Amino acid sequence: MDTLLGSLTSVSLVGALLALLLVYLSPWSWSKTKKREPPGPRPLPLLGNLLQLDLKGPQNTMMKLHKEFGSVFQILLGPKKVVVLAGVQTLQEALVDHGEEFGHRDAPRIMQEISQGHGVVWPNGPSWREMKGFCVAALQDFGAGPTACEERILEESQQLVAAIRELGGEPFQTAGPLTLAACNAICLVVLGRRFQYDDPQFATMVERYRQVPLLAGSPSLQLYNLLPSLGKWIRNRQELLDICKQNQEQCVELLAPLRDSLEPQISRSLVDAFLIKKKNLEQDSGDTDSHYHDENLNATVQNLIGAGTDATGTTLRWALLFMAKFPHIQDQVQQELSSVTGGRQVRLQDRINLPLSNAVIHETQRFANIAPISVPHRTSRDVTFQGHIIEKGTTVIPLLTSAHFDPHQWDTPHSFNPAHFLDPDGRFVLREAFLPFSAGQRGCAGQHLAKSILFIFFTSLLQQFRFTPPPGVSEEQLDLSPRQLPFLSPQHHTLCARQLC
Known about the structure:
By secondary structure, the chain is α+β, with helices and mostly antiparallel strands. It has helices spanning 2-25, 27-32, 58-69, 88-97, 109-115, 126-138, 148-165, 175-190, 200-216, 219-226, 235-260, 270-285, 294-325, 327-341, 355-368, 401-404, 447-464, and strands spanning 72-77, 80-86, 104-105, 172-173, 377-378, 383-385, 388-390, 395-399, 465-468, 482-483, 489-490, 494-499.
């Protein structure tokens, strides 16, 4: 009897596989019913195109598919349909001109569990719109005057310069001080306070925030997002949830003294601006059910610190590595800084008179390309786009790297060339194909703060130090190949910072 049942089971399994194969090979199943959907590689049954995708560097696979199938193409990740947008015109058209249709966020399952619909990164709807608008305004001026954020960043830049000066020109790993300083600059604006670089609790907090995208982007959690039933076997899932719980608990501790010392007439930080807004809404209209509640505040603070720290610190590491790799460009930047500022502290208003310095920062963002793929979007309704039908609820991936290395947009896309952002007269020019913060209504909420930190930190460091490879290492030996992580960061390296006279 067992043998008979086993034979029947085997026959049924073979039959099922044959049926799937026939469906897969059927021209009706793939061509005729999908002729108005975006093109794409033929998927395998059940697996879709998963086996074709390099999970450690998916942007590389997508760029190959972009060349084969055009600017709008479709892949299947298991049962999940994903549309990829590539090329600057397509990205701008979708994200800006059709911002409403492509404007929803597609939160992976693990991020839904973590965010619970709060904050400024993962939610959709009225709460997200309110938090996005609040953050954009508060990060430029949190109620304490138009230069308040700049003063905080200047304060931290001086601390960073002092920390590097103490190294006495000895080789150092740039990841440490640059990441800590970037986090502190964000904390000064968001929380109104900074931490000592040697504070072990601060170092632990920064490391936890660094681990979140590493774990969230790991192949095992990508598999969990596709097949949540595997959750109990995915060890990384619980590890990530534990880290986020610790971040949440620390955030509550950091916010408590700000609540206790709040003075409605004095706004010291973004958190103060949020609490004052909440208090005014309650007093003016008795509205205790607005979007200004503790869960949104905690999640937004964590979003800004977490996303901003790693991205800004990584970009600064690339900038200094490029200066050591290309000393003639470093010479030109330092000559410009000396000529324009005469040694005084650089301020944001100096950008217009420092076109080369500004161009170097922008070229660093383009060439380092630390976020080659944007955070996933989702269509809010059915849309016909460039002749293709894309259904409501479809995951959409903007392939930002396709804009940053487009040979039709850049003279030398695969070389570090600040002239990409300079006109023939040497004036700074912002290019349409420059999309490190994505574009449209889902563009990075903290981009104004990030741009300010990058400019002030980079120019302050180049005013004070000459960055070189460590002894025994030539400029040619410095490795510019990125590490394949959620953020494309430099390989582990050390540099020397020699104090300028």
